[in-house]
Predict the structure.
Amino acid sequence: MTTVQPALNHRRREPLSDATLLMLIAIGIFLVMYASAVILMGGAFQKPQQFLDLFNENAALIIIACALTVVMIGGGINISVGGIIGLTCMACTKFLEYSAPQNSVVAVLLTVLLALAIGLAFGLFEGFMVSYLEIQPFIVTLAGMFLARGLTTILSVNPVKVTHEGFQALVKTKLQIPWLGYVAKNGNLISAKLEIGAIVALLVVAAVWLMLRYTKLGRGIYAVGGNRQSALMLGINVKRTSFWSYVISGVLAGLAGLVFLMHKPAANASIAMRSEMDAIAASIIGGTLLTGGVGNVIGTLFGVMILAAIQKIIGLSPLNESWWQDMASGAMLGIFIMLQSVILSRRGKRGKAEASKG
Amino acid sequence: MDKQKKRFWERMGIGQLIIPLTALALLLLFNLIRDPGFFEIVVNINNSGNPVLGGNLISVINSASELAIIAMGMTLVTAATGGQDISVGAVGAISASVFIKTLIGMGEVTGWTLIVAVLACIATAIAFMMFNGTLVSVFKIQPMIATLILYSCGRSIAYWITGSATPQVNSPIITAIGMTIPGIPVPTPVFMVILVGLILALIFRVTNTTLYTQSVGINQGAARLNGIHPTAVKMLSFGLLGLCVAVASIIATCRMSQVSHKTLLVDIEMDAILAVAIGGNSLGGGKFRMSGSVLGAYIITMLTVTLLAMGINSVNIKAYKAVVIIVIVAAGSPVIKNRIAALRNRRSVSEHSAVKGGAAS
């Protein structure tokens, strides 16, 4: 067939870039996995609430995965996001503890600002160190992680809880979706719930997608990550672009901390430990390459969904001990990464063979 | 004048080590001013009546052992693949589990059972590192992502092997490896670092490993065209890292006489990568200097011990450590270096023109 219509075949395949292909694979795997879980395990999985819980429970992870995607497309990495979540949670909890009127809206608004300010501060600092001082991003953000974790324990070593009534009201506010609910045994309709954090996370995904696709900065991030030299030749301000990618990731991490606190209004020293690695894994599964220039935030969303679904499936299966969970999710991650690599290399070979034929 | 200075540094072969050496010197100076007692070395008598060296400096040299050994292996992997292995702590936990399981399984600890256990431990670590190496070199997956798999599930595998929370083994031989050999006051882990360093130095001296590793790290395609097998070189670097991890895990196990899969060598991957970077090595692969990484490992431990000696709570240390690390890496950043070089050039040019009336320049 290729010999008859090589040109047509070629043209048909061209628009599907590697990133899109990987994203489609991620979406496909998620759908297959979830569908088989619904069919084979039934029970809890058949309720739509279970699906919404994937968003409710992983809202913060979705946001930091978006942050990582932006930075990784720009050719960098940011492993301080988990630390920033921890620091933000602790700082906001402490702030709410000392704010006087226990139900004031102002205090809640100030908390939101505080969270974003912490993220912004880290983003500005790391962005400056990486782009203007040209220090390796891994080391800068590692130092950022140490700093954030250290400041968290300086604020408080003991676990603290949010008792502020205004914030508690915000935590309890949930979007009710009656038509996805179910009728309980006593006849009451229990509607499905989506938390504010999940809505924020989905908005972040949409915003980042739009930013990467349609703004000058977004296109610049792809260009810088793809090839720094040619981006410079094209007249893109390489340093400023990579600086802003870190600022964006910092602010998003601060926001993720707030969302984390809204899901579980308490903080301790080891909150969101190692979540940066989950975020990196989610981005990779979604088709972002660590080398930069390639990636898609929709794929990242499905990357998080895949990781979350693995956790959920194993949690509800008989193998629900924590070490089994770790081993199974590690194995799944391994299979997925290898599958990705095999597909990409086969594609590369086929592309080369066709090029030499044509 | 500037040129002569540069030549002098290069002749000494420490060009890349200036920053870490300065950092170490400043740390020592800081301690000297803060409290000269920091440098005190005392001879204690331990429980079995043997003399043991004590004091802050000894504890720095002693407790940096695992980090120094792993940093050596990490340097190789970084140079060959341009990426880092973040699974060293987890793989260390696995190999330590195998080590202690073998020892417990064979009953009484004697020289022979110890050798069997050590070999089993080394084999396990190398096997798991080969898994990482295969993913990196054959499947062409980036090192950080490939090793993320073992990073996230390695400690669970360790738990699965030991089958209980903290298996213990008590024997004078184990104490001799982890603490001190009776009659020798210097802690044994220090000798282990020297031993591993000598083995690696021998490998580099006798074979062309350094050249091959650097050429693969700088340009894999060019290295391949020159007859170097990139896959083999990368596998070799992971294999040597496996050896280092095994030795480090044995030290860590013997220190405590037990294996706790959650805390054994925990977070050592981050410190090891940091040591490589502080030593002036590029994390993007290519040229490397192993002595720099070892120096980096001692600087990190020195910093921790200094902060502890200053009475800072051990859980808060990370924040202070971060500040110092930022200062060190910022001092080593290319931008700052260029600024300083430009400043120095301007000064030497003005000196020249002052002497020769501007005619020569």
About this structure: The first helix of chain A runs from residue 6 to 13.
